[in-house]
Amino acid sequence: MGRADDLITSSGYRISPFEVESTLLEHEAVAESAVIGLPDPERGEVVTAYIILIKGYEGSDDLVKEIQAFCREKTAPYKYPRRIHFVTELPKTISGKIRRVELRAKGGQ
Q: Where does the AMP-binding enzyme C-terminal domain lie (predicted)?
């Protein structure tokens, strides 16, 4: 179970970032991911994923669309990440937990 402040509220739906991350990890190109909600004027928050790719994959618009389609197939359509950022590392605590607060502070960059 995650912290209540990690839940994403988008278009009235409450979305667990951990559920989206688990789905992302099922995709063959995804090595690791972190999901947060970022402010959105229409939806309240928008599901945003930061993804580390498996060696041999490169981030592209086509891969973003492929991953989004994959998530829509595996979970409810409102849960898929509408924004995806490919990164080489994720901010973590000493114990290895993802520091979502740092990702939120980046504001989608």
A: 19-97
End-to-end, the C-alpha distance of the chain in Å comes to 27
- For residue 97, the SS3 value is coil
Residue 18 makes CB contacts below 8 A (sequence gap 6+) with 2, 6, 35
What is the rounded CA–CA span in Å between residue 68 and residue 97? 25
* Chain CA centroid to CA 15, Å: 11
pLDDT in tens, 37-83: 999 999 999 999 999 999 999 999 999 999 999 999 999 989 999 99
Q: Are 34 and 103 in contact (CB under 8 A)?
A: yes
Contact 15, 7 (CB under 8 A): yes
